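Problem 3 from the worked examples.
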Amino acid sequence: MQHVVDWFNHYGYGVLILGLMLELLALPLPGEVIMGYAGFLVFQGKLNWLTSIVFAGIGSSVGITLSYLIGFRLGTPFFHKYGHYIHFGPERLEKVSGWFSRYGNKLLVIAYFIPGVRHFTGYFSGINRLPFRTFALYAYTGAVIWVSTFISLGKILGPQWEHFHGLMTRYLLIAAIIAGVVVALYLIYKQYKLQIKEAVFNMLVRLLNTFHSLGRVRFLVTATVIIGVIFFVLMIGLIQDYLAHEFDLFDQVVMTLMTLIFDESWALLMRWFSYLASLKVLITFAILTFLGIIRKGQDRKIEVLFLFLVFLGGELFEEGLRRVFHRLPPVIQLVHGHTPYTFPSEYALMVFVVYGYSAFLLIRHSESHVRTIAVGIIFFLVVLSVGLSRLYFTFEYPSDVVAGYVFGGVWLSLNIVLLEINRLIYKL
C-alpha cells in the first residue's frame, strides 16, 4: 500500500495509465488497490473523478489491447512453450479457454472483476483470432465499467475504502460470477430459443391448470405456505449466525454505506418513515383494518379474531424473542427506565405483520390484478422505509432489522395459514 501512495505522490494520473496497463499484461500489480486509492484521492479533492476514470480507462484499454496483439501475433504454440514465464502456461490457457467456451465474447466485459482471468482474456482473444472490432467493443466497455466501479467506490467510501476494499472486491466477484451465469443463460436461450419457449409455455399451462383446479384462494395459501417455509429456514440460519457472532462484518458494512448514502438532508423524511412504525400508527391501521373487515370482509369473525392474534400475538412474540437473545442496541439508551434489546427488531417485525395482514386481506378479496400489484408494491416500500429509518438513526443494527423481517414473515405466514384452515372448517 505504501508503494501505491508513493507512486501517486510522484506520478499522479500517470500511475493509473501505467499501472493498469502493466497489470493487464499479466504483471503482478494491484490494479484494484490503485483505483481504490485514486478514488480516495478524489474524495480528498486531490484528483478529479472524471479525469481519473478517463486515465484509468486508457491504461486498461491499452494494456488489454497490447495483450490481444501479442496473442494474435504469437499464437498458441508460443504460450505453450513460454507462457509459464508470465503465469500463462498450458493449464491456465485451457482454463481461460473453458471460460470462453461457456460465456463467449461477453466474458471480456465481466472478466475484469475476476482475478486471475482478466489478465489473460486479451491474450486469449488474440490467440483465438477474435475480430478486433468485436474485441474492442466488449473489452473497452468492460474497462470503463471496471475502472468506474472501483474509482467510484474509493470516492464513496473515502477514509473507509482500504478497510472495506477486500470485502467489496469479494462482493463484486460474486456479482461478476452471477453476471457470467446470466450471460451463459442468455447464450443458451439464444441457441435453444424454440425449445425453451415451448417448455415455458407448457409449464405455464400446467401452472394455470393448477391455479384453476385449486382455486384462486387455495393457490394464494399454497404460495403463503412456501414463503413461510422459506422464512422459517432463514430464521434458523439467522439464529445460528447470531449465536456464532457472524453479524459484525455485515452490520459494519451496511452501517458505513448508510452513512455515506443518506446524509443529514434525509432526516425529516426518515422521521416520517420511522413514524409509520409507531404504536399509534399501527393501532390506527389495525382499527382501519377492523372497520374494513366489518364492512366488506368475508367470514368477519374469523378475520377479526386473527387480526387480534396477529397484532397482540406479534407483540408477545417479538418481546419474548428479544428477551431470549438479549442484544443491546448500537447506542445505549433507556426506554421507560430500562435498556431495550434489539434482536429481532420489534419495529420491523410489527410493521411486517400488521401491514402484511392487511395487505393479504386486500389481495385475497381483490379481483383486480392492478390493485393486487399496487398493494404488494406499497407494502414492500413501507416495510423497506421503516427498516432504513431504524438504521439511519442508529436505533438498531442491520441484522436486527433483517431478523425482524424474517421472524415477522414466519409469524404472519403461520397466522395466514391458520386463518384459511379455520375459514375452511367454519364453512364445513
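Problem 4, a separate protein:
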Amino acid sequence: MRKQSSTSRVSRRTAIKAGAAGLALPALGSTSAVANAERWSSVSMHLRRQDSITLQVTVWLGDAEFQAMEELAGHFTEANPNVSVEFVNIVDGGPWGRDQLQRMIAGGEPPDLMMLNTGQFEAFGSRGALANLEERIAAESYDLGIYWAPAVDGCRIDGDIYGLPKDISDHVVYLNVDMFEASGVELPSDDWTWDQYRETAMALTNGTDQWGTSLQNSVWSWGSFVHTNGGAVLNDERTECLLNSEEALQALQAYYGVLTEDEAAIPPGAMPQVEGASEQFLSGIIGMNMAGPWFRPGLVENDVFNWTIRLYPRPGNEAPTSVLYTDQWSMSADTDHPDEAWALLKFLGGSEGQTLWSDIYGSRSITPIQELALSDAWLNYGGEAHREDNEKILSQLERTVPPPTNFGDGAKVENIWNDELELVIVGQSTVDAAVENIVSNVNSTLSGP
C-alpha cells in the first residue's frame, strides 16, 4: 500500500491508502508551480556539491525513511562525483505528494526523477510526463527478470516500461494472537471461509471496547473479496464498472456485512480517540486487520502483543486473490540530464541500490527483486518466529491482480466508490444502492464527455 513525513510509517501508509482517491489528479495544463517550496517540502542539502550536475528527486517519506534514502543516494554520489542529488520530500502536497508534483510539472519545473505509486504513475504517464524506458532497456539488455513479474507489470503503461519498481505490496490478514487466546477463540487456518471469518469476528466482539475487526473502505481490501469470488471492479480495458455482477455483489455484502449485519466491526465514532484500522489494531481494540507488508514495522517496533498472519478468507475452495500495488521510480520526460537520471534510476531500482536499501532500511514492503525477497534478511523480518508469516506474504504473489486504479483517470473513479461505500459504513445506504450509484457514475466518468 498512502499524513506525510511527520507521522510514523504505519500512520502514513494507513492515511494515504485510505485517502488514495481524496483528490483526483487534474490534467497537465497551465497550473503554476509553487514559489515557496519550503511550505510544502523538505529538501536535502548535503548531497549537493559544486561543479556537478544536480538531479532533483521527489519523494514522500517519513523522517527515518527520508534519512535512509539520503544515505542510500550518498553511495551513488560517491561513485559518481559529477552528479549531485537533491531530494525534495513532499510533506504537504496531497496523497503521495501528487498534487504538488502535478503543480511542479505543469509549471515547467519537473523533477528529474519521481517516486510514484499505482494510479499516480499511470496518471502522469498517460499525460506524457514520464520517460519511456523501452529503448534504454533494450540498448543495455537490462534484465527485468530479476524482479517479481507483478512488479514489472506495475511499471508498464500500454505495454511499455515507464519506471523501475521500488516496492510491491499484496495484502493479508493480521491477527492479534493474545486477543484470540484471552477470548478463547481458536486461530483460523489459512483456508478459512468468509463465513468462518465473520464467525471469528463476532466471537471476538464484546460490543463495548473490543471488536473483531475494523472495515478498511479501500479497494485494496474489499477488492480482494471481489476478485476471490470471481468478480472484478472494472473490466480489463478500464471502460466499464462490473461491481453489479452477482459475484461482486456477494463479495461486497460479505465484506461490509461484518459491520452492517454482524456488528462485529467498530461502528463509526465508537473510538474517536483511536481512528483508523491500523491504529486500532496496534492499540489492541480489534483482533484482525487487513493490510500489506508495510504494516509489519509498526508491530515489530511497538512490540505490544503477539501476532501472526493469515491469507484472506475465501467464499469456498478458491485460493484468495489479492490486489497488488507497485511503487515506482520514474524519470521525467523533460529532464535536462537524461543519461545521468537513467543512471540514478537504475541504481535506485536495480540490484545494487535495492541491496543497499535492504541493509540500510530493511525492505519493509516486498522488495521487488526476487533474490532479495527470498533472502534470510527479508524472510526473518520481525524474528525467525515470523518467517512463516513472511513466507505467506510472498506466496500470495502467485495470485494477484493489478488495482483497478491503474489508469489515467483511476483517482476519479476511486473517489466515486469510496464516497458511496462510506455511506454504507455510516448506515446511510445499502450495498445494493451504493453499487447502483457506483456503476452509473463510474461508467459515466469512463465514457467521458
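Solution to problem 4. The two ends are 32 Å apart (CA to CA). The chain has two domains: 9-169+325-393, 172-323+409-447.
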